[in-house]
């Protein structure tokens, strides 16, 4: 019954605290039983006018104290069991996310991950801290009470013991329905979270297109679906609690009535009747409580399914068979790739990125240029063909080794919500002020940084939203320059930058190409005019390659593109 071995196995340290929780609870029960027995004996003695000894009074104080301390420790161990489990689970999910790396979105959406990490794990608090210890305690307690009541009334003890399993039976009966409802509940919750995050991120765009009202309605509908699901969960829980109460009170009443009959026949004393009546209630409390925890824990179980889905997600294979020789060229050899395995995106692509060279990829939108960059960064795996760095196949090197020698600046390079300095230091932790200054100058950002009151220590806001689009791109560029890798890929890295700054940046990129292997992807053909080799892509294929002069002389695809762009962009002549 919801004893998930895998989940428990993941949280080994919690086991110890769960056992201690059961022990503390059981000692509290023993103290409680002793107190009730004491009261029963006390009544019996009162009737026969017998005196209560001082020792007996002291023992009562001892039992009361024992119960108080055990309850205190019960709370403490229960909290430790759940805290430990939560830390362990979050740690596992976090490490998994790191291993998944840039592939994490292929497993689930961002908001889903946040929900699993925060809410999902939180839902398991009751499972570890309450439900599991209560499960074992609920087996132990009725047996203990059975043994205690047995000497007073065999019949009452037997009736009580037989009635107790009716509670777990009723729980099992509703479990099937509960599972289905909870699965839908989580699905609805996750949909709502995803829509909320997306709407929040795209709020400006929605407002610009006057679509905010429509989205508002859609979100209202999803919120309404979630409300209905929540109500279903609550009513299911309430109904099952009612059933459990019926069994618990009915069972306790049956035990008490049996004892009453025996008392009326003079088979037991009034004190014993009181003991049985008080202990009858105790008989059902643990199972009844287990039932209440059960529903909350069920929610946690549904969350754990999602946690396992993340933990079981296939990780990119990270083999480290070879070491890169940075002075060698990188080559794509007849590479084929598709995102969904149905629509081919790259077809037989071959190209080379050579050290101390500027290599460019140009081509119409959607021709697969950024996909080449993603494959070079090992975000995806090549389906057919090879990518090699010298003789070393990319499949034989880890991403971390690759990232030590290669960096990418793209239109969506992420700016962290810290300061300009911290964003830069991500690339090189021990960068000197001089190195930072040079990187900022090359990226045409130093003037802006000097104009800021807090300079490098200016916060840039979440995702760099306190900066302009161009400033963000320049900061990403400065960061890449500071990283100083042997291979640098610029994918539309200057698309948001004004022409004057752009020219200066392209000068810097050309300068970098004198010592590094630089790959640029740019729509503006004027920027790549002086590249050592330009690859022209069309519908996933490299249709031409060569220098600007040779390609232009070919009068083919590149020629057509240059002329078209010149027509549109008469301000700057390409040829
Ligand atoms: N993550 C993805 N999942 C599925 N399909 C994708 C994904 N990224 C890109 N594609 C598809 O792959 C094709 C090539 O996209 P890619 O971004 O490589 O083109 P591109 O030449 O860089 O285009 P652009 O110049 O507009 O940036 C497109 O048809 C696009 O729809």
Give the SSE map.
Blueprint: H1 5-10, H2 12-47, H3 54-100, H4 110-123, H5 125-149, H6 154-163, H7 166-201, H8 203-208, H9 212-264, H10 270-311, E1 330-337, E2 346-353, E3 357-363, H11 369-376, E4 384-389, E5 392-393, H12 399-403, E6 406-410, H13 420-425, H14 433-442, H15 446-451, H16 469-483, E7 487-491, H17 499-512, E8 517-521, E9 533-538, E10 541-546, H18 548-554, H19 557-568
Parallel strand pairs: 3-8, 3-9, 6-7, 7-8
Antiparallel strand pairs: 1-2, 1-4, 4-5, 9-10
Helix pairs in contact: 2-3, 2-5, 2-10, 3-4, 3-5, 4-7, 4-10, 5-6, 5-10, 6-9, 6-10, 7-9, 7-10, 9-10, 14-16, 18-19
The site of adenosine-5'-triphosphate (ATP) has 10 residues, from α11.
What percent strand? 5-15%
Strands in their spatial order, largest beta sheet: 6-7-8-3-9-10
CATH class placement of the largest domain: Mainly Alpha
Number of individual domains: 3
Ligand identities: adenosine-5'-triphosphate
Q: Low-confidence stretches at least 5 residues in length (pLDDT < 50)? A: none
Rg calculated over all Cα atoms: 35 Å
- Major sheet attributes: 6 strands, mixed
Number of helices: 19
Architecture of the largest domain, CATH level 2? Answer: Up-down Bundle
Shape: elongated
Report, as a whole number of angstroms, the end-to-end distance: 76 Å
- Mind telling me the CATH superfamily name of the largest domain? ABC transporter type 1, transmembrane domain
Helix content class: 55-70%
Structural class estimated from helices and strands: alpha/beta
GO molecular function, one term: ABC-type oligopeptide transporter activity
Domain ABC transmembrane type-1: 19-299
Domain ABC transporter: 330-564
Protein name: ABC transporter ATP-binding protein/permease
